[in-house]
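Example record

Each entry pairs one chain with its bound ligand, nicotinamide-adenine-dinucleotide.
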Amino acid sequence: MLKVAIIGLGNRGRKYAHHFHALGAEITAICDINRGMLEYIRAKYSVPADKAFDNEDDFFAAGKLADALVISTQDRDHYRHAMKGMELGYHLLCEKPVSPVLSECEELERVSREKGLKMVVCHVLRYAPYYNKIKEVIDSGAIGEVTAINQTENVGYWHFAHSYVRGNWRREDETGPSILAKCCHDLDLFYYFTGKECTEVFSVGGRRVFLPENRPEGAPERCLNGCPYRVSCPYEVTKLYYRPTLKTIPWLIGHVKVITGKGRPSKKDIVDALKTSPYGRCVYACDNDVMENQTVTCKMGDVNATLTMTAYTARCYRRTHIMGTKGEIIGRDSDGCFKLNVFGERPKKIRVNSGIGHLGGDRGVVRDFMELMETGVVTERLSMMDKTIMSHRMAFAAEESRKSGEAVKL
Ligand SMILES: NC(=O)c1ccc[n+]([C@@H]2O[C@H](COP(=O)([O-])OP(=O)(O)OC[C@H]3O[C@@H](n4cnc5c(N)ncnc54)[C@H](O)[C@@H]3O)[C@@H](O)[C@H]2O)c1
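Structure tokens for the complex follow.
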């Protein structure tokens, strides 16, 4: 039975704990600075009390406690935790982005290669049945040679407000630019679909909505401090966190754990969090600086690929249009199907059984990682560290281009 240790038991770490446990792995050690969450996960998966660590120093000092280490801490902690993990001989499943510093990504790739340790990165879209099917259709030659890709990442106004205005990924200096944090796995899809390396990147981006100058007169610092705009403002926190329903904003239902930091939050915990945590702030009175919309054009050999990431959409989904010499693929991942138009033939609707959690990608990456650990076979789908570097280079180049106004050659 595969033994795994997990560092970082937040929103992502909890999902990985669930999937590893459900797929038959044993969680032998955990580490998180949030003691309440540590105990919640320890009890849930019967981790021995002396293998539940509330600080990284004790965790790493305890030596190698599993075959593999899952790194699901924040972006700027991955490098440190990955290096310490590899010193102990852990194989790694590391959250994306690997690091907001390119030289750190490159060093991790080198060290994992030199030590012969497996390092897989959670580019979870690769493992979602929807994207697997698209890849299968491309590889079958049904649309001929791919010539161009247009991908739109519709983040959703409520998701953007939660994560990129009020939450963890709002500031470039704390995590990284939004094109890296949010979109490295979209850029990875360009590489995965075409099998071609990126040679040139151009990007533009901007911020239009979540700015102090858009704060309505008289709006307080926090929504719960008697905001006169509470009925009309779509970002008002009770709409997002008290009353999300499966019909409106299903994603935020799970995020009350995130805003409270508690495994089983009560209504009072949620209200307290909105009175004191960053998640209760007026969206126009935050310290955010990451881009709200950004377009990246990439030359992937002879394929032109464009990604637009935008906050300004009602729902959260990705739209993909892949053009080939003999046909095209058009789809929205949230529909669970896409259209295959082969020129001169009747259009076909291709249905896919998507799961939950990045359309099944969260479970998929865990399943593939476990298979890798068991068999040692590196399939094309696996986002090993050496393949992952490309998406990160593209994101760093996009930022460089956005700031300089010049195209960047890779
Ligand atoms: N693959 C994806 O699609 C995807 C989606 C969302 C987030 N992410 C990435 O996953 C990572 C985790 O995101 P999240 O949403 O779970 O964040 P989170 O803030 O909910 O979780 C981070 C956890 O790490 C803990 N922690 C912080 N410092 C620590 C330390 N020094 N030692 C041990 N634990 C520590 C925190 O207490 C928290 O529980 C981030 O890098 C994020 O960018 C990836």
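The radius of gyration is 21 Å.
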